[in-house]
């Protein structure tokens, strides 16, 4: 028996390809009845078309996106650098505005001159290192007719008095110093006493009879019996007032009217 060599038919894809091409051509060229074939062909091809389009757009946009990210990072760095540079300038503007507001208030107080005396403006140029050192130094002295014992005030009230004078500067003893004493009166009840320094932010009012009428919140001012300070200068506000039946005098504490720890500009009462 003669053996023939094995023979495998080669599959041909030519015919199916031709059929598909003709079907597609017919679907686009022949309207009406063949619309079904066109729709089917589009449905089969669409996923491949969509994937190819997405890939193409992605390949094109990728370098652009990378460039955009680099530009964004550079812009952020430039903005941060600009903000860092503006920081000190903004702080300086805020400081100038604060100083301007403070000087306006100071000039307004000087123009009113409610104490009936000359007011010499001065800058605080020195202060004791300790909070218990109740001395400040100002840039006005004998050359500006400043003398020992002259009162020193701000818009809010009494600061203290001049205790030492040089040619171009003077030292001021704050009213909270234990060595300071001021003839004072309760503005509401007119009870008289002596306000003495007690701590860096507190005074005591002594020698007020328990027969008087002093209450928390009352304003204490310089008294008309004082030969040193003009009457009516605010000294402070009563923060505590107590008395016992067996006591002869009130126990009174006063919070200073002026912010003595924040003094920058003051007035010497000439």
Characterization of the model:
- The structure is a single chain.
- The chain has 270 residues and is of the alpha+beta class.
- It has three domains: 16-112, no CATH class; 119-174, Rod shape-determining protein MreC, domain 1 (Thrombin, subunit H); 181-269, Rod shape-determining protein MreC, domain 2 (Thrombin, subunit H), CATH 2.40.10.350.
- 35% of the residues lie in helices and 27% in strands.
- The protein contains two helices and twelve strands, in the order ααββββββββββββ.
- The strands form two sheets. It has a six-stranded antiparallel beta barrel with strand order 1-2-5-4-3-12.
- Helix 1 (14-29) crosses helix 2 (35-112).
- The longest helix is centred in the N-terminal third of the chain and has 78 residues, at 35-112.
- It is elongated and about 130 Å long.
- It starts with 13 loop residues before the first helix and ends with a strand.
- The mean pLDDT is 78.
Distance between the termini: 147 Å
Gross morphology: elongated
How many β-strand stretches?
Answer: 12
In DSSP terms (H or I, runs of 4 or more residues), the helix count works out at 2
Report strand %: 25-35%
Unreliable spans:
none
* H and E order: HHEEEEEEEEEEEE
What Rg, in angstroms, do the CA atoms define?
46 Å
Q: Class by helix and strand content?
A: alpha+beta
Which strand order spans the largest sheet, edge to edge or round the barrel?
1-2-5-4-3-12
Quaternary organisation: single chain
Main pleated-sheet profile? 6 strands, antiparallel, barrel
Return the average pLDDT rounded to an integer: 78
């Amino acid at each position: 028996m003669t053996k023939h060599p094995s023979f495998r038919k080669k599959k041909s894809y030519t015919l199916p390809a031709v059929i598909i091409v003709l079907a597609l051509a017919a679907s686009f060229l022949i309207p009406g009845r063949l619309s079904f074939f066109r729709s089917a062909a589009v449905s089969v091809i669409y996923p491949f078309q969509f994937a190819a389009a997405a890939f193409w757009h992605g390949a094109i946009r990728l370098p652009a996106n990378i460039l955009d990210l680099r530009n964004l990072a550079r812009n952020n760095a430039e903005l941060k650098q600009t903000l860092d540079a503006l920081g000190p300038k903004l702080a300086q503007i805020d400081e100038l505005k604060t100083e301007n507001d403070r000087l306006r208030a100071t000039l307004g107080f000087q123009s009113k001159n409610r104490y009936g005396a000359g007011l010499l403006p001065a800058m605080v140029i020195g202060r004791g290192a300790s909070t218990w050192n109740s001395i400040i130094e100002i840039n006005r002295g004998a050359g500006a007719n400043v003398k020992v014992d002259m009162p020193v005030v701000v818009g809010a009230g009494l600061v203290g008095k001049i205790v030492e004078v040089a040619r171009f500067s003077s030292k001021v003893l704050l009213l909270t110093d234990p060595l300071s004493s001021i003839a004072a009166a309760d503005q509401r009840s007119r009870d008289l006493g002596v306000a003495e320094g007690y701590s860096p932010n507190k005074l005591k009012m002594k020698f007020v009879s328990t027969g008087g009428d002093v209450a928390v919140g009352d304003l204490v001012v310089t008294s008309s019996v004082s030969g040193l300070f003009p009457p009516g200068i605010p000294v402070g506000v009563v923060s505590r007032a107590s008395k016992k039946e067996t006591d002869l005098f009130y126990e009174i504490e006063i919070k200073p009217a002026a912010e003595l720890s924040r003094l920058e500009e003051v007035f010497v009462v000439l």
